[in-house]
Amino acid sequence: MDALFSTLSVQEDDKIVEIPLSQLRPNPYQPRKTFDEEAIRELADSIREHGVIQPIIVREALRGYEIIAGERRFRASQLVGKETIPAVVRTYTDQQVMEIALIENVQREDLNAIEVAAAYQSIMTQFSLTQEELAQKVGKSRSHIANFLRLLSLPDEIKEHVSRGTLSMGHARALAGVKDDAKKKELARQAVKYGWNVRELEQAVQNLAQAAKPRAKQKPAKRDPYLEEAERWLREKFRTTVKIKAGRDKGKIELSYFGKDDLERLLEMLKALA
After folding, report:
1. Is the overall model pTM greater than 0.90, yes or no?
2. Catalytic residue among 66, 71, 99, 115
3. CATH code for 2-96?
């Protein structure tokens, strides 16, 4: 990675040429989808006064040149109406171009989390890399790569919040752990509406998980065999449903009857026992 990036700095023996802006096109592997317009205007003001101090890096393409590093300088030069820009022409493979664009932006923290995740996925797919191989190329841990890739499974609504900065990478990671998309989106809306920090959102996710856990069914207490035998004897004796309910100090016996005649039958039997 260090060797690759050393080629992005202008060397003493480099040949700097003036290339017409009309012959330049942005890096097709540029992971950054949005540019800070205010920052571009500020850079344009500097270029208007001092010119482009640091040449951009390009490679030859089928038609003209592709920008490898320096798209902000290119855009700012367009803004002030310049016709040419100083550049150094180098030779790179597609994979090197993609890696440079990604690493340059990540190191400068120019990308939001969703753009980083999409760029990681794009490189892995384009060049059949594993997470471990990509981690080595960009100088990150495998878990770092995995955490970003998980963000791509989030609903578009949440990814939009992350792209706009209304939700952070920490918020997104907390939401990625929720299985139900509808619940993810509802939690995201609440986090934005109430300005929850990451810890508050994590607590809300935890509360949701606890509420969703099925309550353990209580196993019925094992009954005293003596009481079961007593119930059986009373059922046979009175020919009706009998329940014996045991308590710590006292219990009770319940006899069921079905209609007035059945009640009178039971009463006669009880009187006979008195």
Report:
1. no
2. 71
3. 3.90.1530.30
